[in-house]
């Protein structure tokens, strides 16, 4: 064997067995958080179905949501009375929440989006309280998950 030579240094990535252990470890870690995530409106089991059981991929994408600006942009558009932007932001937020199985946020964003599509800015604004609560719960759960890493 050559000194300093490993499969990782030759291929640029860890061997598959190592990757599998890492993925199993992340799956176990995320499963421990499943109940806490559910309490905060995140359906981890549904997410694992959608992501083919790839907990590492889900975690990486879910944690990126902490930097997502669509909720703030939606709030600003509503405050400005900019219905077109609000519709776009609500629709995008709904899509992101749905794809990541942020169930409560998805449902709340869907209601806001529907009101905006009907042109009812007042109703959409009134529906922001539940959306804000759902968004805060998701951010709190994901922040806790990130901080545990």
Give structural notes:
There is one protein chain. This protein has 149 residues and is an all-alpha fold. It has 9 helices and no strands. It has helices at 7-11, 16-39, 44-50, 55-64, 70-80, 83-99, 103-117, 121-126, 128-148. The longest helix is centred in the first third of the chain and has 24 residues, at 16-39. The radius of gyration is 19 Å and the shape is elongated. The two termini are 35 Å apart. Residues 1-25 have low confidence and may be disordered.
> Main beta sheet, described?
none
Q: Please work out how many helical segments DSSP would assign.
A: 9
Helix content: over 70%
Radius of gyration: 19 Å
Distance between the termini: 35 Å
- The mean pLDDT is 84
Low-pLDDT stretches are 1-25
**Could you give the count of β-strands?**
0
The structure class reads mainly alpha
Order of helices and strands: HHHHHHHHH
Oligomer kind: single chain
What best-fitting shape do the alpha-carbon axes yield?
elongated
Strand fraction equals under 5%
Write a compact overview of the structure shown:
The protein is mainly alpha-helical.
Characteristic terms for this protein:
single chain; 149 residues; mainly alpha
Question: What's the arrangement of secondary structure elements?
Answer:
Blueprint: H1 7-11, H2 16-39, H3 44-50, H4 55-64, H5 70-80, H6 83-99, H7 103-117, H8 121-126, H9 128-148
Helix pairs in contact: 5-6, 6-7, 7-9
